[in-house]
Amino acid sequence: MINEQQKLYLKGTVILLLFMVSSANFKAQQLTNLWTGLRQHQPQSELPKGNASFQEAKRIAKENLPTKLIPTQEGEWIITQGWEMADGATPIESGKSIFDPQLNTATWYNATVPGTVLTTLVNQGVYPDPFFGLNNMNIPDSLSRTDWWYRCKFTIPQDIADRQLRLLFNGINYRAEVYLNGKRLGSIKGAFIRGEFDVTNIVNPNSENILAVHILPPNNPGIPHEQSMIAGQGLNGGVLSTDGPTFISSIGWDWIPGIRDRNTGIWQDVRLRSSGDVLIGDPLVTTDILLPDTTQAKITIRTNIRNISSKTINGTLSADIENINISIPYSLKANEEKVLVFSPEEYKELNIKNPRLWWPNGYGNPELYDMKLTARTNSSTSDTKKVRFGIREMSYELMVSDNDQNKRVLYTPNSTINKGNPIFDYEKRAFFTKDNQLPTITKGADVSGLETLSADDPIGPFLAIRVNGVRIFCRGGNWGMDDGMKRVSRERIEPYVRLHRDANFNIIRNWTGESTEEVFYSLCDEYGMLVWNDFWITTDDTVEPSDFDLFVKNAADVVRRYRNHPSIAIWCPRNEGFAPEGMSETLTKMVAKEDPTRHYHGQSRFLNMGTSGPWGYFKDPSLYYTQNAKGFNTEMGSYAIPTANTIRKFIAPEDQWPINDVWAYHDLHHTSQNFGDFMNAVNRYGKPESMEDFVRKSQFITYDAWRNMLEAWNSKIWNNTTGLILWMSHPAWPSMIWQTYTYDYETPGSYFGAKKACEPVHIQMNLPDNDVMIINTTLHDYKSVTAGIRYISLQGKELYKKDVKLDAKANSSAKCFAPENVNNLPRLYLARLELKDVKGKTMSTNDYWITDGNNDSYKDMNTLSSVEVIVKAINSNGKTLIEISNPSKVLAAALKLNAVDKNTNEILLPAYFSDGYINLLPGEKRTVELTLPQHLTGNYKVIAEGYNARSK
User: Could you report the per-residue pLDDT of 766-783, keeping only the tens digit for each?
Assistant: First the structure.
């Protein structure tokens, strides 16, 4: 998206700027109207200022740490711990060779690898945490214009001295020159391509080796825009986009400030690999389910193998999958490469009966299989590859234009006979409406994988994703970036993905590919998250990559590297735009060749979609239903205010109230996104008097806003809506907008509102008519359920009640009733919806606050007496259940549970509660399930806090 301030900055002579930018070859782009970002720094008057001083960092003394080789599998080790880092000038000024074993590195830093330059400098106490307050403003942007040296010393295991040895770099940013023992190995360019180097004849087998890596930042780091009360919302990207493939958002966006090193560094791990003379390439595992029968599946394994020696080699390649063990002989001439295929026609073991299928969250278990490929020569192992995959089949519904006729088709890649060539043409398109285009069929394409569907389907032109033959109602969120500093260990990232699963989400969009790494896809596999995967280009009003060949090389390596992950559902060229002219055909052909199992969708917004946005607060939420709920939308969001506990972690007490530059710097967009309407909504409960009061009242607003978005899509499931990907579900840093949970794993109102709307079996009240509907996204029918509504006063008096019995069919909606008009209702009351199964067990509870239409009526919440609720923990069948009850005679509103340390009262995170911001009627008791990570399960208690209540 582009905001008004960007439009102002776009005025002027952009061409002049582009000639001034260093090292850029823009390939004659039509740049006059394209966004390049700031051309000069903002005036001091616009920069954010806080009452608190910048935090001070304390330099940590450098240690002489030995390098460790951590084994990952047979013949592979991660090189870790002993890395050192210095700016480019330091080794030159030393006057000594960087390969001198006696080089004095006392002024260097202990480097964090994997990690960025900035991560190392923060860990070493050079700079304070850039996520706190305005600290980032005190970190020099010159880091993004500095080259760096990384260095480590290591010895190899003695038992591999006679093997072929290679160094593998899994990811650097942006360019690297790699040296070992004074010999140049080669270079790497682009943040997402692997670099692998033969070091067999360079390694010292019996003594220390010195590995040195010269890292250079992107050519065009640009100038970040700094958010403040005067400057307003951050500007989206800029000239850094010309350096894609890189982390294009690290120049700064309207959800993250400029990261001062632009995420330069060795951001993924470095490995030593040993092998014989035959190497295994990147395998492709294809699973074909014999739909509609899901009890039979076929597996095909295809991989290239390569002889790196000067002699002919004979051997076998074996594949082990659980109790399956098969092998194929091979013969390779000197330096020959071949493709070997294990097909189900030749290997009956690959015809699987009753396979464990991989399903998206909410539709079944995300079952996974482990495969090991082994290349043997004579009786010795030459190379191994481990692959985790899922048995599942992707298919896609969409409308295409074929010979000027629009038709709806089902595209099943596995059903295409002659795979490896594009099916859809994204350069020749047809308009369905002014903001929704259709692809055409590529001339001469094999259309055997296309099945014509009914033209009467109300989905019409919109994309729908099927898994294992079942339509998946996609609900989830965007990840702008996993972490602003690319700290992407499994330990750090897993709680975020789990929070998605627990919120009943089933899809994550890897926006512009910023989160492209193994741990992200592996976690999505394990937690049942589909992935919409962009490559590294933003909107088509912004400058595009200057090196198309480099871009496609990085993209091809990504596709080959990650294509076996069952979670990946869509490849997409960019954010909100088609691939650039001159790249489009090459990129389309590459994806078709390297991954014939998935759909490559040419646009995230104006192609078989329902546009994207809006991104601000809606004062009239019925507009979500009447104007916005249509199709498949990849971006829609609103404000998402953190809890007070979270705000205290990243804003100093001096700046916590009133709203100021520090809030603006952390994305409180007070000049846009309908902020005035948002504040008016908060003020309905009375003007906030403190940060805590503002947060307490905001949770009502954010809970409703995020629930409204998703329930609007629910209301038209398979009528004309097929998916909604929130903008965003995940924050890259401490933020005030566009997130469900917060960076510290806390779950404010936005999270529980979204979670409520995404219940697998859900009862809701649709706007503007308040009609009641059941949404069942499971694959199970529910017979004779009872849908009910009650109106309840603040004192707990029942004012109206209605129940109906009906069936809730699988993967569909059921209209229940519209409540009758009731006279003499109070100004403010609670509408409670409940869905119960045939045995009377509650399946869904959903509360709405309703007024007489007067905003002042919300202030009646402030008349509620203070309530002490009772919280009790119960262990039941290995689960921790939290029983919370309201012994009073008035309603207890918006109760949130937290696990806290008994000694310090510190809130423990992550803590996974099954519900939050609940309302308890007088005398009501509710049970909420709690799961804590094992390391937090010691000395804790559970407390409750609400609008007018807290636990004893």
Answer: 999 999 999 999 999 999
The string of pLDDT tens digits covering residues 727-761 is 999 999 999 999 999 999 999 999 999 999 999 99
* Spans in the chain with pLDDT lower than 70: 1-32
Q: Which residues pair with 879 in a beta bridge?
A: 876
pLDDT of residue 681: 98
Question: pLDDT of 4-53, one tens digit each?
Answer: 444 433 333 232 233 333 333 433 344 458 999 999 999 999 999 999 99
- Tens digit of pLDDT for each residue in 287-346? 999 999 999 999 999 999 999 999 999 999 999 999 999 999 999 999 999 999 999 999
Please report the pLDDT score of residue 32 as a whole number. Answer: 55
Tokens 């080789």 belong to which residue? 69
Residue with tokens 């409670």: 832
The rounded distance, in Å, linking the Cα atoms of 630 and 718 is 10
**Following DSSP, what letter does each residue of 41-108 receive, concatenated?**
PPPGGGS---SSPPPPP-PPPP--PPPEEEEEETTEEEEES--EEEETHHHHHTTS-TT-TT---TTS
355 preceded by a cis bond (ω within 30 of 0): no
Which residue in 331, 317, 356, 326 sits closest to 344, CA to CA?
A: 326
As a whole number of Å, the end-to-end CA separation of the chain is 47
Q: Which residues pair with 813 in a beta bridge?
A: 775
DSSP label of 301? E
Q: What is d(CA 877, CA 884) in angstroms, rounded to the nearest whole number? A: 19
- For residue 178, give every residue at least 6 positions away whose Cβ sits within 8 Å of its Cβ, in sequence order, or none: 167, 169, 184, 185, 186, 187, 188, 195, 197, 211, 212, 213, 214
Residues 41 and 476: their CA atoms lie apart, in Å, by 37
Residue 622 three-state SS: helix
Helices (H) and strands (E) in the chain, counts: 14, 49
| SS3 category, 117 | helix
Which helix (H) or strand (E) segment is 713 a member of? helix 691-714
Q: What is the pLDDT of residue 33?
A: 84
Among residues 641, 639, 640, 634, the alpha carbon closest in space to that of 616 is found at: 639
* DSSP element (H, E) containing 300: strand 296-307
Residues in the chain: 952
DSSP per-residue letters across 516-568: -SHHHHHHHHHHT-EEEEE-S---TTB---S-HHHHHHHHHHHHHHHTT-TTE
- Distance between CA atoms of residues 928 and 60, nearest Å: 44
Give me the DSSP letters along 236-251: ---GGGGG-SS-GGGG
Can you say whether residue 28 is alpha, beta or left, with left for phi > 0 and alpha for psi between -120 and 50 degrees? left
- Residue 20 DSSP SS3: helix
